Amino acid sequence: MNIQETIFQRIARAQRNAAPIEAQAHFYHDLRFDSLSFISLLVDLEGVFSIVFDLAEMQECLEVGRLVALVQEKTRGRYD
Amino acid sequence: MIRELLLNQTHWAKTAVIDGDDTLTYGQLAQRAAGICAQLPTDGGNIVAVFLPNSADYLAALFGILMGGLTVFPLSITLTEPEIAALLAQLNVQTVVTTKEHWSMFNSLDNPPKILCVEDIAPCAVEALASVPATAPGTPMVLLSTSGTYGKAKIVMLSEQNMVTCVQNHLDKMAHEKCEEEIRYLLCTPFSSAYGMFILLFLALEGYTLVLMRETFTLDAFYRTIARYKVTHSETGTAAITLMAQNAWREIPYDITSARWYGFGGSGISKELLGQLRTSFPWAEFWPGYGMTETSPMVSKVNQHLPTSKLASVGTAVKSMTIMVEVDGVRTNAPFVQGEVVVKGTNVMLGYYENEAETAKMIRDGWLHTGDVGYLDEEKYLYICGRIKNIILVRGFTVYAEEVEACILSSGLAQACVVYGKPDGAGNEKVCAEIVPIAPGVTAESIQAWCSSHLAAYKCPQELILKDALDKTATEKVKRL
């Protein structure tokens, strides 16, 4: 499984505008997510990758690139 | 009474605002407000718009305008330039209080208003002001837009008496004298909304402290703020409470037990989620409320504690309000009769600004017709079941389908469209649109981009479907979904 590709697909499904999904894109400011839809996305990814985000980690991954990096770290060794 | 709130020195030594490491007393806030008041025009136009994020500056602008005997017109910080332009033109607003960061939203207008940037305004002694000018009876103190800019926006007029009543209603329900800690409020709804407005006025009346949360809302930021500043009361939209319930199983690395009262409103929440909250946060009370901008805004709220048997309700009527339901033109408060919720009381709006036709549709025989369907139980608890009017509730924000349709049609990319709401989980809705494009090459992305640049984010369709034709009724009208 390509982690970044999977995450980007999930984001594309949930985003509220046609802004490009790039590493530096901010979920709230650029992709028009709100708090509910952002957490829904994270819950979706928790299910897809069998991981758990804690509250502080949710706070830390408000940019696409940081979210991808966090998921990659949490799934290290599983999809290499 | 409301206009003179900050002139009362009783609370001047108390903390009005906590903003990170900074605090502002009521006395300092009064001086900032006086500084803004001194800059406001005394001739030509009595409506002053405020375009500011949630901040101490917002409070200073609000009270500065009120001290000047003027009418305040809050503009949501999420509005786009076209939306702002249309609203200002409709009301002939000649002065806006904003920041240098947002100044560009106004200076390209055809008739730009006078722009006052808060950074350029120095505080001044309150004593330097003359007394608050008297305003004619029936003059609105606050104007609030409830719908958008395509066609004539409906602008709610609220009087000083409306706001006084709402504040007194809140006092009656809350029983703050039972709180032994220093009362500190965290307000996570836009200050520019009716809900935000009345909480700010209530805090100033009682001399309570407002804690600001500048960060983008996340649960971590929310809990961290509560813990750091020992927040006792939280007022948010239902979305925040829903997030708390859905994520209650995640460890909270902060002590949030200081917050024992969570008030919320804007959209519904299931009794199951509410029950879950009580289990997960047993030290706290969760208080749903119901209302609308047109009622200043509170219609009903929980009275200190919501009994378990009433979890599906939105509480009982606030003190000044009478609630009934109307079925086939007949009003009743008999229990378990379902109909349109109609209300009467001194917190019902003066009307819609320069729009008697819409006012007459809304207020008939002295009763405001909410457009919501509900019933009262045998103890007069109110339950909301659905909606008659064609609005979509997106995280507590009202979206009029007609407004989004008009925007899409104005793009030149669509020949027909219909906009509707779809449940999005946990009492929330999302905006959906079905569109017949004007030409084969038109894409959903191009229509989406148009909406993004012409509508606030919460109004933009999340689901956009291109079709060859829309379903029509027998009278050839587009069928509403």
Walk me through this protein's architecture.
- The complex is a heterodimer of chains A (80) and B (481).
- With 80 residues, chain A is mostly helical.
- Chain A has one domain (3-74): ACP-like (Non-ribosomal Peptide Synthetase Peptidyl Carrier Protein, Chain A, Orthogonal Bundle).
- Chain A has helices at 3-14, 35-49, 55-60, 64-74.
- Chain A is globular.
- The N and C termini of chain A lie close together (8 Å).
- The mean pLDDT of chain A is 90.
- Chain B is α/β, with parallel strands linked by helices.
- Chain B has 3 domains: 5-135, Rossmann fold (3-Layer(aba) Sandwich); 163-387, Rossmann fold (3-Layer(aba) Sandwich), CATH 3.40.50.12780; 391-466, GMP Synthetase, Chain A, domain 3 (2-Layer Sandwich), CATH 3.30.300.
- In chain B, helix 1 packs across helix 2, helix 4 packs across helix 5 and helix 7 (238-246) crosses helix 8 (271-280).
- Classes of the chains: A mainly alpha (80), B alpha/beta (481).
- The A-B interface holds A 16-18, 28, 32, 34-36, 38-40, 43, 52-56, 58-59, 62 and B 216-221, 223, 239-240, 242-243, 246-247, 250-253, 395, 424-426, 428, 444-445, 448-449, 452, 457-458, 460, 462.
What is this entry, summarized?
By secondary structure, chain A is an all-alpha fold. Chain A has helices spanning 3-14, 35-49, 55-60, 64-74.
Write the layout of secondary structure elements.
The complex is a heterodimer of chains A (80) and B (481).
Chain A: H1 3-14, H2 35-49, H3 55-60, H4 64-74
Helix pairs in contact in A: 1-2, 1-4
Chain B: E1 15-19, E2 22-25, H1 26-39, E3 47-50, H2 56-67, E4 71-74, H3 81-91, E5 95-98, E6 114-117, E7 142-145, E8 155-158, H4 160-174, E9 184-187, H5 194-206, E10 209-211, H6 219-229, E11 233-237, H7 238-246, E12 261-265, H8 271-280, E13 285-291, E14 298-301, E15 316-317, E16 321-327, E17 330-332, E18 339-345, E19 351-352, H9 356-362, E20 363-364, E21 367-376, E22 382-387, E23 391-394, E24 397-400, H10 401-409, E25 414-423, E26 429-437, H11 444-454, E27 463-466
Parallel strand pairs in B: 1-10, 3-4, 3-5, 5-6, 9-10, 9-11, 11-12, 12-13, 26-27
Antiparallel strand pairs in B: 1-2, 7-8, 8-19, 13-14, 14-15, 16-17, 16-18, 18-21, 20-21, 21-22, 23-24, 25-26
